[in-house]
Amino acid sequence: MDGFTLIDAGVVLIILVSGLLAYSRGLVREVLAIAGWVIAGIAAFTFAPTVDPIIRELPVLRDIIGTSCQLSILAAFSAVFAVALILMSFFTPLFAQAVQSSAIGPIDSGFGFLFGIVRGVLIVAVGFIIYDQVTGGEGVIMVDDAASRVFLADATQAIRDMIPTEIPSGITDRYEQLTGRCAQ
Fold first, then answer.
1. What distance in Å separates the CA atoms of residue 68 and residue 62, rounded to the nearest whole number?
2. Contacts of the segment 55-59: beta carbons below 8 A, 24+ positions apart
3. Rounded to an integer, what distance in angstroms lies between the CA atom of residue 175 and that of residue 183?
4. Virtual CA dihedral for 149, 153, 156, 161, nearest 10 degrees?
5. Does the pLDDT at position 137 exceed 80?
6. How far is CA 117 from CA 15, 20, 171, in A?
7. Largest CA distance in the chain
8. In whole angstroms, what is the distance from residue 76 CA to residue 7 CA?
9. What is the pLDDT of residue 19?
């Protein structure tokens, strides 16, 4: 490690931009945005089988999907996910603006900044994990010598330890539940 590299400047920029964006939006909006993605995923898992027959009858999609049950389930899942995410995106700013306009607005912004810093660190740490996986130890010297790799080594290792080696059974069970009727 020779010192501050261009990679370190990029890392600082990513973390700072993440913090400033979260500061301007506030913690409530950031949390509600993440909750929107989670709710959209749950809605898609729940309602994809119900929407599937409708998707199969849409003229353009019917030609693309053909007789593939998995493709129709995937299209239904995607459609429900997108609609739920769009609906959540209407409500998120309303709640966030109410909090920002209230007396706790500055506190919300401050915690938003902290959230953004943590998010930025996680983004960079995941980036380093992906870099390590792609390069397989034969990396770029500028990246390998970056001071930020040493600084974020604990966070990177903690995330690496949380990565499952196999697909969680809950996900595979739900996928098989969604596509189980395709085998019939």
1. 10
2. 55/79
3. 13
4. 150
5. no
6. 6, 8, 30
7. 62
8. 41
9. 97
Between 3 and 38, the higher pLDDT residue: 38
Alpha-carbon distances, residue 71 vs 63, 114, 177 (angstroms): 12, 41, 15
d(CA 77, CA 46): 9
Structure-block tokens of residue 170 = 């809950």
Whether the Cβ atoms of residue 72 and residue 132 lie closer than 8 Å to each other:
no
The two tokens of residue 71 are 């493709």
Q: How far is CA 74 from CA 35, 96, 142, 168, in A?
A: 22, 32, 41, 19
The residue to which tokens 């950031």 are assigned: 30
Inform me whether the pLDDT recorded for 2 exceeds 70. Answer: no
For the chain, what is the mean pLDDT? 89
Exposed, middle or buried by CB within 10 Å (0-12, 13-18, 19+), for 156? buried
Exposed/middle/buried for residue 27 (C-beta within 10 Å: 0-12, 13-18, 19+): buried
Say what the pLDDT of residue 44 is: 93
Looking at residue 114, its amino acid is L
Q: Where are the domains of the chain?
A: 6-179
